[in-house]
Design goal:
The chain has about 450 residues and is of the alpha+beta class. The chain folds into four domains: about 30 residues; about 100 residues, no CATH class; about 170 residues, Jelly Rolls, CATH 2.60.120; about 130 residues, Jelly Rolls (Sandwich), CATH 2.60.120. Helices cover about 20% and strands about 30% of the residues. It contains six helices and 25 strands. β6 and β7 form a beta hairpin.
């Protein structure tokens, strides 16, 4: 037989085999990656699980779910993450579906399809089917990260440490206050922040707190204010941040951190009606007994004036189990604002309303936290120890941060004179954070401070 005929015969045999496999798959109903699993991944997962995936609060996805070979390798763990509810990460109960921005719920039908794909052998299918899904992007969470490398696009201002901060071998938990110098001439007058993004150097960054940038924790993206809402950044040569590093101590564990921050400002002529305020709403004075698997802590906060509630950010440490915000209106009616039944220290979300929520004066916010200090909690550092409120990761916290603003519009036109009360408040906020802590001197090369700060 001539070579050309042999090649043609082999081609026909290959096509017949491929068609036969496709028919068999269709008849059996077994999902394939390209026809079935990929569009679900694109809708729910690839915002993080993509090639060179983005850094989200210091952590990155370990694989791309746009790649069949990687998805197949990870298939058993994908199923486990879906069945346990670990992925997609979100935390807020199903009852809140539709209330918050960038929610990450997966439909029951989509969940069942992915599980069937794994159970069916994680079949590849026909790569040509991928063309049917082009343009489909993740609708849960933020969209794909821009080319700039910042979720907020091209920042108007970028600041970072003067030089990398060394977290030494022997250190486990450290909370320095550090100043990020503003480039000369880059910020000569007060500006209204529209968006702010913290870019931690790595997963050893437990959290970051700044009066201008909000809070940066693992899994949390940038802070974007609704139109007409903002925070004023005074003309200041430094941005002050309170860092919290946590890692396993030991030889060879030292790391270097070069955390950055980016800002997008409102433009002249824009109008600021609501100046954003925040309240940590911390609660302490309690002790979690050793071995207690369901310890409950409760606190209240009185709302003294009409406000719009922008967002809520519950915060606990490794023993955190669940958290609830509940509002009692002046007439006694109650409403659950946020219920997080399975709190995860590794995914500390900020739950921002799609539309700021009106809360009348005279209302009371009831906050409840639950902790698991038993050996059944795999994250528990020491189930034999009583635990109190404290700053270290091995301590515990019961915080219920809220972002809000008074309801009366201020009508501040960007580019015109800023009301003195707002300017004074903004200038004093960062000054207070500097006065409360010893600033880390990045010009020092020794670690004499380590003994003192670790005591």
């Amino acid at each position: 037989m001539k070579p050309r005929l042999i090649a043609l015969q082999n081609l026909l045999l290959g096509l017949t085999a491929a068609i036969g496999a496709s028919v068999a798959q269709a008849q059996s109903g077994t999902p394939t990656f390209y026809a079935d699993a990929l569009p679900v991944f694109q809708k729910n997962c690839v915002v993080c699980h993509q090639p060179d995936g983005p850094d989200v609060g210091g952590i990155s996805a370990p694989m791309s779910l746009m790649d069949y070979d990687q998805a197949k390798i990870w298939a058993p763990l994908i199923k486990n993450a879906l069945v346990t509810g670990y992925m997609p990460p979100w935390g807020a109960h199903e009852r809140h579906r539709g209330e918050f921005k960038d929610e990450r719920y997966i439909e029951d039908s989509e969940l069942a399809l992915l599980i069937n794909w794994v159970d069916g052998g994680a079949l590849e299918g026909n790569p040509a089917d991928a063309a049917n899904h082009q343009g489909l992007v993740a609708s849960s969470g933020d969209t794909s990260i821009p080319e700039s490398g910042w979720w907020i696009g091209d920042p108007d201002l970028i600041v970072q440490f003067e030089r990398p901060v060394t977290v030494p071998d022997e250190l486990e938990d450290w909370q320095p206050t550090i100043q990020m110098p503003v480039p000369e001439g880059a910020h000569t007058s007060p500006r209204w922040i529209s968006q702010a993004e913290l870019d931690p150097g790595g997963p050893w960054v437990h959290h970051i707190v700044s009066s201008h940038m909000g809070v940066g924790v693992p899994g949390r993206g940038p802070f974007s204010y609704p139109e007409g809402w903002g925070v004023l950044m005074p003309e200041d040569p430094f941005i002050t941040v309170n860092m919290h590093y946590h890692k396993t101590p030991g030889e060879g564990t030292a790391v270097q951190d070069l955390t950055r921050a980016g800002f997008v400002f409102y433009e002249d002529g824009d109008v600021i009606d609501h100046v954003v305020e925040t309240n940590l709403l911390p609660h302490n004075g309690w002790t979690i007994p050793a071995g207690d698997s369901n310890y409950e802590v409760n606190n209240t906060h009185e709302i003294e004036e009409d406000i719009y509630l922008l967002s809520m950010g519950p915060h606990m440490h490794y023993r955190g189990k669940a958290m609830r915000y509940e509002l009692e209106y002046p007439d006694g009616e109650r409403e659950v604002l946020l219920w997080v039944p399975k709190y995860d220290f590794n995914w500390q979300f900020l739950y921002e309303y799609k539309e700021p929520k009106f809360i009348p004066a005279g209302s009371t916010m009831h906050m409840s936290w639950w902790f698991d200090n038993s050996e059944g909690n795999r994250w528990n550092p020491d189930p034999t120890a009583d635990v109190v409120y404290g700053p270290e990761t091995t301590d515990e916290m019961a915080n219920a941060r809220i972002y809000f603003a008074p309801t009366t519009p201020r009508g501040i036109v960007v580019g015109t004179e800023i009301p003195e009360d707002i300017l004074d408040t903004a200038r004093r906020a960062d000054q207070r954070s500097r006065e409360r802590a010893n600033l880390l001197d990045l010009s020092q090369d020794d670690f004499d401070w380590l003994t003192e700060d670790s005591e």
